[in-house]
Amino acid sequence: MAVTILGMDIGGTNLRSGFVNDRFELSEFRISSSQAICGEKAPENIAAYIERLMAETGIRPDAISIGFPSTLDKARKRLLSTPNLEGLDDMNMVERLENALHIPVYIDRDVNLLFLCDCHANHLTADVIIGCYVGTGFGNVIAIGGEILVGKNGVAAELGHIPVRGLTLDCPCGNVGCVEMIASGKALKTLQETWYPEEAIGTLFTLHASDEPVRGFINDLALPIATEINILDPDEIILGGGVLQMDGFPKGALEDAIRLHARKPYPEQALRFHYSGEKQENGVIGAAILAFRHMKREKGQPV
Ligand SMILES: [Zn+2]
After folding, report:
1. In what order do the strands lie in the sheet with 63-68?
2. Pick from 4, 15, 23, 117: most CB atoms within 10 A?
3. What distance in angstroms lies between residue 92's CA and the mean position of ligand 1's atoms?
């Protein structure tokens, strides 16, 4: 019998949702505001959103799978911290939603869902795969042997929060001087306000890719990526996120900067870059892939 998953991708700005069947076909794709479901009653708001969706479409999914821009516990039940959205800190979201909806619920980090979608789309199955997603912040995923690394507490692969000497900017995570403060969409916004206050941020790469401030930004982006490459010697590298998808983003210059800082002769000589798909629905598809993986694992099947 066909299985249907309700996939949801809750980002810092947009909430995307849709139903995905086991042939990865998407229906009823919708985009709305994340702010509308957050705040003091976030779990109730999310449950109400899902109930409304089920009532409007007449579809009751076999499972619900949701990505949050958060750190999660190792068991993938509890949200630990969500810097960019209100009301999503330190709560067992799976328990709250399952009690309200009586449907199995799976949750994970939003970047993990994008990563699962990108691996699926690019047929990547290698031993060591890393993903670096430059959006508002700097998202990172490490997969080893087909499993996404979660670490002792569930918070592995927070590459954006490695400290940089001499950097004194406050990071939303609570620390000072994280590399995300110079290698992210936030940093690009500051660059635009400082150097090009009269221009729209969307023109930075089309008009100014060879200017010193923009070249400096590209080099800063390469630092954490090359760092992780030098630690893990990955088979495959996925690069993505909203900043890389901007018009005119200099992919070649970023790859050159990564190569500059990667150890010679290897891994530098054998780097394999892939670019994340640009589609809005990728997080929703990735959410469904996550649910299918959990459901197979629960039945004792290989994922
Ligand atoms: Zn930080």
Report:
1. 26-33, 14-21, 4-10, 63-68, 105-109
2. 117
3. 23
